[in-house]
């Protein structure tokens, strides 16, 4: 997208006292210059043609100048740059596929077979649509989702100079990520317990292993967070994704695939609850929340700063496909336990025993190490994302310089929140999670509660994103199209429906026992919820306007 602003421009071939009148144009993230003597149609064509040839900056006609120099990239360099970009965005996938994903997907397969694969596919579509939206918002506006929300609601009722809705968002992310952090520690301990021989320990030895594991995770996490070394994990997390895909792919190959059941699993359905299984509604919302992670909307926006839109879209697509591929493979492996007639409540140790049948002790070790690495990466990311979100939506300065609003810094240390508060938030989350899991809380239950709670927060986050994407003050240079609004509207409505279904099951499930009647009511409530948002705000009018502009 090109957009312009007229300024006097010093021509390098002219004397220092002369200026040429023309236009600055922004092509993706690059500012270009066009003199008035060159027609804009020819300029656009020149930019597009030369951008397609693989130049970091386009090759200009003689009458077009740029304040920087350009370099032509070789095909090999272009491929390497694209691969590096893909690995960069796999951090989102690595944050998505944490211990909660392993446990939830394996449990879904163990308790319901392949019937819930459709939920993962739908969740991945929601994840891509929302993450692409927050990346586009950041690249076009120059502000993260949290910053846009703070700007949008800066004139609302405030508490300590911060809008109430911003406090609501910050609190929701903090408590949601607190549960996620307990979920990560629970998964991390399960990963250690999955090591060969660990399940044979009893008494004080078992307690020592559990408490010691929690302390080691806490010390590593706090050390890396304190010294700001978490940004070094990008490529390692990308390689971890590849390793986890390979491990579960090998197990699936050894197991064999029942393609008929797999294809039926792609069709939306609600399996019946058994005596040993969780509620299907809980598992479905858990699969949605573990695939479309709410805090990834804030983290993905921060990652998109300084990136090109096309590259970000490809990277997010690759990340989403990688995450859903791993999740489906884990669910298929879990379904093998279901096929063998598992009738007891699912635990991760059962999954490791099942893997051992196909890959032996070495396979269990690889699974455990990968699981430990996934837990550690999530333990690091979760408190960091909560602190970054709080920093972006809360106001810590009485006044903000206008130039800082227009061109926010990309420096990770350029934060409003005092470093003491920033570290304090992360410290509280890590320490409380350490205490809860060391006290031997039911780890499978902790993971389920964390996934369900955060799944219920997704409508709030996705609605805020949709409102910001349709706000002209952020998207004036690249307004949201009608088709993009349709995709976003469908995804946000689905999050409302999934959440309504869970709440109905929890509140009135004792007498509203028919699954399909409850689902119908949930659909009605979900549509009514997003309809209320459209009526109560300017969202409805903006969506209608976006179709008029498209036509």
Description:
The protein is mainly α and 551 residues long. It has 20 helices and six strands. The strands form two sheets. The protein has a four-stranded antiparallel sheet with strand order 1-2-3-4, with helices on one face. The chain has a two-stranded antiparallel ribbon with strand order 5-6. α4 (117-141) packs across α16 and α6 (164-193) packs antiparallel against α16 (443-469). Residues 1-71 and 400-412 have low confidence and may be disordered.
Key structural traits:
single chain; 551 residues; mainly alpha; four-stranded antiparallel β-sheet; 20 helices; globular
Report the strand count.
6
Strand content: 5-15%
Order of helices and strands: EEEHEHHHHEEHHHHHHHHHHHHHHH
Low-confidence stretches: 1-71, 400-412
Biggest sheet record: 4 strands, antiparallel
* Beginning-to-end CA distance, first to last residue: 18 Å
Structural class: mainly alpha
Main β-sheet, spatial strand arrangement:
1-2-3-4
Radius of gyration over all CA atoms, rounded = 25 Å
How many helical stretches? 20
- Helix content estimate: 55-70%
> Which overall shape is indicated by the principal axes computed on the Cα atoms?
globular
**Average pLDDT reading:** 77
């Amino acid at each position: 997208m090109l957009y312009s602003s007229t300024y006097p421009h010093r021509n390098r071939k002219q004397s220092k006292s002369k200026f040429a009148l023309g236009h600055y144009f922004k092509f993706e993230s690059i500012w270009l210059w066009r003199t008035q003597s060159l027609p804009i149609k020819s300029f656009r064509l020149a930019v597009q043609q030369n951008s397609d040839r693989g130049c970091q900056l386009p090759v200009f006609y003689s009458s077009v100048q740029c304040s920087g120099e350009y370099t032509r990239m070789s095909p090999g360099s272009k491929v390497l740059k694209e691969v590096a970009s893909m690995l960069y965005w796999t951090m989102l996938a690595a944050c998505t596929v944490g211990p909660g994903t392993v446990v939830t997907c394996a449990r879904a397969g163990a308790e319901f077979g392949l019937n819930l694969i459709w939920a993962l596919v739908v969740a991945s579509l929601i994840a891509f649509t929302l993450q692409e939206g927050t990346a586009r918002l950041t690249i076009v506006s120059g502000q993260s989702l949290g910053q846009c929300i703070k700007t949008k609601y800066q004139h609302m009722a405030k508490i300590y100079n911060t809008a109430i809705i911003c406090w609501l968002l910050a609190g929701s992310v903090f408590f949601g990520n607190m549960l996620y952090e307990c979920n990560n520690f629970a998964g991390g301990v399960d990963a250690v317990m999955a090591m060969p021989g660990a399940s044979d320990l009893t008494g004080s030895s078992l307690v020592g292993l559990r408490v010691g594991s929690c302390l080691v995770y806490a010390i590593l996490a706090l050390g890396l967070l304190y010294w700001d070394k978490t940004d070094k994990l990008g490529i390692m997390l990308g390689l971890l994704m590849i390793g986890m895909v390979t491990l579960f792919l090998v197990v699936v190959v050894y197991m064999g695939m029942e393609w008929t059941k797999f294809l039926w699993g792609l069709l939306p359905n609600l399996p019946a609850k058994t005596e040993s299984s969780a509620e299907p509604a809980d598992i479905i919302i858990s699969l949605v929340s573990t695939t479309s992670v709410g805090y990834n909307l804030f983290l993905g926006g921060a990652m998109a700063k300084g990136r090109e839109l096309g590259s970000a879209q490809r990277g997010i697509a690759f990340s989403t496909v990688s995450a859903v591929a791993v999740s489906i493979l884990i669910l298929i492996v879990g379904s093998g336990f279901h096929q063998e007639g598992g009738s007891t409540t699912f635990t991760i140790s059962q999954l490791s025993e099942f893997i051992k049948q196909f890959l032996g002790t070495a396979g269990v070790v690889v699974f455990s190490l990968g699981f430990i690495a996934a837990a550690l990466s999530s333990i690091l990311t979760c408190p960091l994302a909560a602190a970054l979100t709080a920093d972006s939506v809360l106001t810590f300065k009485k006044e903000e310089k206008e130039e800082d609003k227009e061109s926010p810094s990309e420096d990770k240390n350029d934060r409003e929140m005092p470093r003491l508060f920033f570290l304090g938030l992360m410290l509280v989350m890590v320490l409380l999670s350490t205490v809860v899991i060391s006290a031997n809380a039911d780890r499978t239950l902790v993971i389920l509660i964390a996934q369900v709670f955060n799944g219920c927060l997704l409508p709030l986050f996705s609605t805020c994103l949709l409102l910001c994407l349709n706000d002209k003050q952020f998207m004036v240079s690249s307004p949201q199209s009608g088709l993009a609004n349709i995709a976003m509207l469908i995804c946000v409505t689905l999050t409302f429906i999934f959440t309504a279904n869970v709440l109905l099951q929890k509140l009135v499930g004792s007498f509203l026992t028919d699954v399909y009647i409850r689902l119908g009511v949930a659909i009605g409530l979900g549509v009514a919820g997003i309809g209320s948002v459209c009526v109560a705000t300017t969202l409805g009018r903006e969506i209608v306007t976006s179709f008029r502009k498209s036509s």
